[in-house]
Write a structure and sequence with these properties.
Blueprint: H1 3-12, E1 20-25, H2 31-43, E2 47-52, H3 62-69, H4 87-94, E3 97-103, H5 105-113, H6 119-126, E4 134-138, H7 142-146, H8 148-159, E5 163-164, E6 168-171, E7 177-181, H9 185-196, E8 205-210, E9 215-218, E10 221-223, H10 230-241, E11 245-250, E12 262-265, H11 269-279, E13 285-288, E14 295-297, E15 318-320, H12 324-329, H13 332-335, E16 340-347, H14 351-362, E17 366-371, H15 372-375, E18 380-387, E19 390-398, H16 399-416
Parallel strand pairs: 1-2, 1-3, 3-4, 4-5, 8-11, 8-13, 11-12, 13-16, 16-17
Antiparallel strand pairs: 6-7, 9-10, 14-15, 17-18, 18-19
Helix pairs in contact: 2-3, 2-9, 4-6, 5-8, 10-16
The structure holds cytidine-5'-triphosphate.
């Protein structure tokens, strides 16, 4: 990678550059995660102003939060650092968003009631509701979370326009296991980035295939390839950030599922075909990034093939796998223009010529070419988009950055072929 490419990749990571976030902490053990969250937001380019309740101060010190945010923390409405003594007004007027993490059951109830007896709740009430969005990351014991009062309050918060970011599930500080953990800092960062992303694909149902497939020879051996799945996972994430409902059909990879994406794990090309055939019927966009095996062993053995001592090697006969992309591209919905199909071409040479030929052979409106050996397993790639109008080059960059650019290109093409491919929120 060239220095220029490294610089570009570094700059790309500042997804929250120019955003000013008020990070509110209410009282809960999850405050220990807020330190990491603050750091992650700052690292992503945001400026962060921390506001803490008195209860939050029992769990983490303002000194820690000041050091990580690089700004003095506010925790009292009587703070005389604000010249007009109106911290609740000043803090909320500067913000692009207010994120309460952790948001305790008590603080949720306060928000619902519109109480204003300390700085954080006062500031939430005083914020210009149409300009400064409020997001909350609940954190509490599983019984408190499941309690009808909390669920009722969360529903009311949403009805009032607050974004409730959901909870994690698992071992809790109290020793119990269940729903109610605050989401991890990385998850909250992903949600914040998605929150600020323009919703170009809202109403679209996007189906993505990713990763390699595994074709069994016998119960312990098989044929696969070097695809890491990173490009497809990045595309699934970018499509979700852009507001689409995303389903990701993934071959055998060990990547984490992007937030808010429905994932179906498959092993073989036949499994992938089955998963796609079913779901492509309700999709409006199909993006085939998977490196699907072209062939599978014709007669996989149900038992491990053993050496018999003769020195003879086993003979493997192959059967061709169905071309999933070509099949979907021929479906009635795709032919009617209601399902926009995007193919990938992993080539080793003559990228333009091979990819152009592949686009026509697979009969897809958009084909994305890349040099497979340069990018398999890497976090970076370079893409060449080919459609009937010509080509668009996307130079070497992180796969996530390329995925976001690709989503913009797809959204522009969907807008151009409206009204056929109209997203519906149904
Ligand atoms: N693809 C598919 N099903 C297959 C083979 C390929 O859906 N059985 C899709 C891939 O996901 C990709 C596109 O077709 O979007 C091109 O895949 P690629 O492996 O580059 O091309 P092939 O069709 O396999 O052609 P070749 O290997 O000869 O280059």
């Amino acid at each position: 990678m060239t220095n220029q490419a490294i610089d570009t990749a570094g700059a790309e990571a500042l997804e929250l550059a120019g955003r000013h976030i008020v990070l509110g902490l209410s009282g809960g053990i999850a405050c220990y995660k807020s330190a990491e969250l603050c750091r992650a937001l700052v690292k992503a380019g945001a400026t962060v102003q921390v506001v803490m309740t008195e209860a939050a101060g029992q769990f983490i010190t303002p000194v820690t939060m000041q050091a990580l945010s690089g700004r003095p923390v506010y925790s009292s409405q009587w703070d005389d650092r604000a010249p007009n003594t109106m911290a609740h007004i000043n803090l909320s007027r500067e913000a692009d968003a207010v994120l309460i993490a952790p948001c305790s059951a008590d603080f949720i109830a306060k928000l619902v009631q519109g109480r204003a007896d300390e700085l954080l709740s006062l500031m939430c009430l005083a914020r210009p509701i149409g300009q400064v969005p409020l997001l909350v990351a609940p954190a509490m014991n599983r019984e408190m979370y499941a309690h009808p009062a909390t669920q009722r309050n969360l529903a009311q918060l949403q009805a009032d326009g607050t974004t409730v970011l959901g909870v994690g599930s698992g071992f809790q500080a109290c020793g119990e296991t269940g729903d109610g953990r605050m989401l991890e800092p990385e998850e909250l960062l992903e949600d914040m980035i998605a929150f600020f992303t323009p919703k170009r694909l809202v109403g679209q149902r996007v189906l993505v295939t990713a990763g390699p497939t595994y074709e069994a020879i016998d119960p312990v051996r098989g044929i696969t390839n070097l695809s890491s799945g990173k490009m497809g996972f990045a595309i699934a994430r970018a499509a979700r950030e852009a507001g689409a409902e995303v389903t990701l059909v993934a071959g055998p990879v060990s990547l984490p599922t992007p937030r808010g994406v429905a994932r179906i794990d498959v092993k073989s090309a036949s499994n992938m075909l089955g998963a796609v055939a079913k779901r492509s019927q309700s999709a409006t966009v199909f993006i085939a990034t998977a490196a699907v095996a072209d062939w599978r062993p014709a007669a996989p053995s149900s038992q491990k093939i053993k050496k018999d001592g003769s020195g003879q090697t086993p003979e493997l006969a192959f059967t061709e796998n169905t071309d999933i992309l070509a099949m979907v591209a021929q479906s009635p919905a795709a032919r009617r223009g209601q399902l926009f199909c995007v193919g990938f071409a992993a080539e080793s040479h003559d990228l333009l010529a091979n990819a152009q030929a592949k686009r026509l052979r697979k009969n897809v409106p958009l084909l994305v070419g890349n040099i497979g050996p340069d990018t398999f397993g890497q976090d970076h790639n370079a893409l060449l988009l080919i459609d009937a109008q010509g080509t668009v080059e996307m130079p070497w960059a992180s796969k996530l950055s390329l995925a976001r650019q690709l989503v913009r290109e797809i959204a522009a093409r969907l807008a151009a072929c409206a009204p056929q491919i109209q997203g519906t929120t149904a």
